Amino acid sequence: MQKNRFTRAKSIVLALGAAAGLFFLTGCNVGITNLTPSVLPENPSQIYTISTRVKPKAVNVIPGSLVVRIIIDGQSFDMRKSSLGSDIYEFDYQLPAGRTELAYYFLVNYKFENQGIVSTREDYTDVLRSRIVGRYVLSLETNRGPVGARVSVLGRGFTAEDSVTFDGTPARTVYDSPNALSFFVPAVETGRNYKVEIAGANGTSAVGTFRVDPTALTITPSELNLTSGQSQTLTFTLPSPAPTGGLLLDFTTDAPESIIMPEVVVPAGSTTATVEVKGGKPGVGSLFLKGFGPGEIVVPVTVN
């Protein structure tokens, strides 16, 4: 595929705006494969490595004649051979301040022999793009646990507006630092896997897959009878110690003015937690807890 400068310039203009991830030329004498991810994590130096694999496809390409360049921001730069492989070429590009996207293409010059005549050829790719993201996830502390377990996410660029979701269901999220978030596994159906994502002002980022395991819980007593202002203890017992970070028991109630109860967290390594439930205005209602056994646990409460 031999093209003159005018043809190449025309095809580049037509290609502007087209998204490209992994691109492979066909019908040319050399194959050019883009190895640069379409999304690159931001780094403090703002230097990003762009790489490509260039491999002759025709036997008539003269060995050692390949000259690989990258065209970026209207400038041409020679690419160096990488230590990762003989056919891989790299270029380190320092992104100007305020930019969040790279647009570039690869240009390869080489010599080609045909019937004893040596000529110079040129192949190139369409315009390729890579986006710089300030928030990215490095690791999920664990990939499974029960409802209520506190799990950490390590990464970079987190904000207080970020929230974790399980297949779109919001989880209670704690902003620890720009490099760490924590979430409590929400009261979803147990025994299955969920896609975990982080959503916020910087868009949505995939975290990974998390399996929610079933667990049991015993509550003593199983119902409460109180008078206004009176308090009574509720004890929660797990069959095994709570995981690292503790286990949140996220109760809801249909009588918030009658039933006054603090947040319940079983400490890490413990199997029990006890809280005081106080009677408010006279009324009848219940405490509800999902994710511990089939359906939900219901604790009836009467306040006289």
Could you explain the architecture of this structure?
With 304 residues, this protein is mainly β. It folds into 3 domains: 5-133, Immunoglobulins (Immunoglobulin-like, Sandwich), CATH 2.60.40.10; 136-213, Immunoglobulin-like (Sandwich), CATH 2.60.40.10; 218-303, Immunoglobulins (Immunoglobulin-like). It has 1 helix and 29 strands. The protein has one helix at residues 5-15; strands spanning 30-34, 39-41, 47-56, 67-72, 75-78, 80-81, 88-94, 101-114, 117-124, 128-133, 136-140, 144-146, 150-156, 163-166, 169-170, 172-177, 180-184, 192-200, 203-213, 218-220, 224-226, 231-237, 247-249, 252-253, 259-260, 264-266, 272-279, 283-290, 296-303. The strands form 7 sheets. Strands 2, 4, 5, 8, 9 and 10 form a 6-stranded mixed β-sheet that branches. The longest helix is centred in the first third of the chain and has 11 residues, at 5-15. 26% of the residues are buried.
